[in-house]
Give the backbone structure.
Amino acid sequence: MDYLGLLFYFFIIIPSAIIHEYAHGWMADRLGDPTARYAGRLTLDPRSHIDLWGTILMPLLLFVSSGGRFLFAYAKPVPYNPYNLKNQRWGSALVGLAGPMANLLLASGFAFVYRLVPELAIAPFLAIIVYANVLLMIFNLMPFPPLDGSKVLYALLPDSLYSVKVFLDRYGFVLVLFFILFLFQLIIPVISFIFHLLVGTSAGF
């Protein structure tokens, strides 16, 4: 992607992250927990979701420090109370999956439009929107707290492996940082595969 494309990517990934968080709150509300609604977070108004560090400062720092090669952002996490959920076994996992699935729906929608107008000038920007949302989906499915994949993992773990949950809860943030710094390249092939599955092989990523 060129420099203009990366700037566009920056302005796309933030709204995508906001929709991601909204989806968490929407799902929790449907499953019996009104915490996000009472906190005023069931809205797409960016002012309710922007986090100074995760939405503004961190992406700018990553953009500058990587010379424009890497950028990631997140919105303020939507609060929810797992004890209010109707399904105590799978409720948290469904809330966790709602965010990545929202990104998949966004990616699929824009990929559909891309396939309709692959020769138009806006096509590269549509492809960037697809790529950004696929990246958000795959990254957030990693099984490290506070990422969404950890909620799915916890629902699948048997009680005999409770110590794994304790370990991840204690060191999750450190594991996420380690993953970003040293292992992020491992998921690039997965992101690229899904991206090209959605838009076709002609997109130049």
Q: What stands out?
A: Residues 3-30 form the longest helix (28 residues). Residues 3-199 form one domain.
